[in-house]
Amino acid sequence: MAAAEADLNDDERAALELIRETGGIHQSDFWKELDVSSRKGSRIADSLAKQGLIQREETVYKGHNTYYLTPAPRDLEFSLLMAGDMLSPFVGDEEIDAHSDTFSQWVMNLAYED
After folding, report:
1. Which domains does the chain have, with CATH numbers?
2. What is the pTM of this model?
3. Residues 6+ away with beta carbon under 8 Å from 58
4. For each of the chain's 114 residues, which pLDDT tens digit applies?
5. Which end of the chain, N or C, is less packed with Cβ atoms under 10 Å?
6. C-alpha span between 114 and 110 (Å, rounded)
7. Is residue 74 within a helix (H) or strand (E), and if so which, with residue range?
């Protein structure tokens, strides 16, 4: 969990989870789903946006001005895919045979890392 996420209160944590699970939600539906007032929902969304955890984009939905809330892109930790200087053979489009030499070498490199 990122440092900013660790400092979230229960309402903010539930809100962030909702936005991530849905992949995006209109703010006018967001506060209803959370069972909070529109004012509180707006404050939660604003707080999450200021912390860089979500993105808010102005939009019109059902004839009303609102925001569309989406999860902010997360930084990926590519080192988790590495074993020594070898990238995981599971990265890519091709199917990997778990009995292949490439996979075995990658696993062996995991075993010998400090």
Report:
1. 3-71 (1.10.10.10), 78-111 (no CATH)
2. 0.62
3. 65, 66, 67
4. 555 777 899 999 999 999 999 999 999 999 999 999 999 999 999 999 999 999 999 999 999 999 999 999 876 667 777 777 777 777 776 777 778 887 788 778 877 765
5. C
6. 9
7. none
